[in-house]
Design goal:
Number of helices: 10
Helix content: 25-40%
Oligomer: single chain
Order of helices and strands: EEEEHEEHEHHEHEHEHHEHHEE
Distance between the termini: 15 Å
Shape: globular
Strand content: 25-35%
Largest sheet: 7 strands, mixed
């Protein structure tokens, strides 16, 4: 991120009402305008964390992020550039019922409108562009997506510093901090399954996320470096199961294993391999790639991939 720009994040929040697509817009009190929910990044936050927090604060609706739908750029009165990242986000009926939103000094009201209405109702062209991007996904049949997140374990002791079995090699103090730091971003994508190599450094990397979500970690040798190097790892089986489940999941593994995981994801979804896949597999410790797939037709190919750098 540039120190000179103001960064913000939000989402195009959608739902289905009586079989029809509806998009959430907010009426802001101070500006008397109609816009998409968004807000500025707080210190220490990542953009996905900001998007989820801001949507909840402005609307009372808790969402998980789907596929990215664009980035808007515009100048503030101060002449600083404002950069806003957006994702699609489905609002479940349960989340809407739980919303305790009341009109306030920031948001005067919420309104669910048709896509056609949104295109003429929103106050700013940059918001209209985000709606148009989402509608292109809708037109391609990938309105609803789920993520498979391929995560490289956090920083571990080097082999030269460790005399026991490699699978028992622990995280360093820095690695422990990294594991804590990435938990919030991973949770922003609605993770429901945590699948990890059986190696201690991988399991420990996802412990903070498991604790935050209250979920168990599925440990498997099929994602371990030892099994991979021995030729006994069933990576195809692990990836295929996760694609078929259509549930948001994290797959935590090792640097030598991750390129094969990505190739198996491409194979399982009928996606043509390319440099983008290699780039998404080139991860530093605690970095991860979010692979978005269609929830209705996961075999139709990878929708998009986002890669997040390591955090300290």
């Amino acid at each position: 991120m540039s120190d000179k720009a103001v960064y913000a994040a939000g989402a195009l929040v959608w739902r289905i009402v009586e079989g029809k697509l509806r998009i959430l817009v907010i009426h802001r009190t101070k500006y008397a305008d109609v816009t998409l929910p968004k807000g500025k990044v707080d210190p220490g936050e990542t953009l996905p964390e900001t998007a989820v927090r801001e949507i909840f604060e402005e609307t009372g609706i808790r969402v998980s992020l789907g596929a990215p739908v664009g980035v808007s750029h515009y100048r503030l009165p101060s002449r600083r550039q404002k950069i806003v990242h957006y994702w699609a986000a489905h609002a479940s009926d349960q989340a809407i019922r739980r919303s305790a939103f009341v009109p306030n000094k920031e948001v005067a009201g919420l309104e669910w409108v048709s896509p056609k209405r949104a295109l003429t109702y929103l106050s700013y062209p940059v918001d209209v562009e985000i709606v148009e991007n989402f509608l292109r996904l809708e037109g391609d049949g990938v309105r609803e997506t789920f993520p498979l997140i391929v995560l490289r374990h956090a920083k571990a002791l080097s082999r030269s510093e460790w005399s026991d079995a490699d699978a028992a090699r622990p995280l360093t103090a820095r690695g422990t901090r990294q594991a804590q730091a990435i938990s919030g971003t991973l949770a922003s994508f609605g993770v429901r399954r945590l699948v990890s190599s059986s190696a201690i450094r991988c399991v420990t990397t996802v412990v903070p996320l498991a604790t935050a979500l209250g979920r168990d970690i599925i440990r498997t040798d099929d994602l371990s470096q030892d099994s991979f190097e021995a030729g006994t790892a069933d990576i195809r089986g692990v990836v295929g199961k996760r694609v078929r489940s259509r549930k948001a999941a994290v797959l935590c593994s090792h640097r030598p294993v991750i390129p094969t995981i990505m190739r198996e994801l491409a194979l399982a979804t009928g996606t043509i391999e390319g440099q983008y896949l290699s780039d998404a597999a080139t991860l530093e410790p605690s970095a991860f790639s979010v692979v978005h797939l269609s929830a209705t037709h996961p075999g139709a190919g990878i929708v998009t991939i986002e890669t997040y750098d390591a955090r300290d």
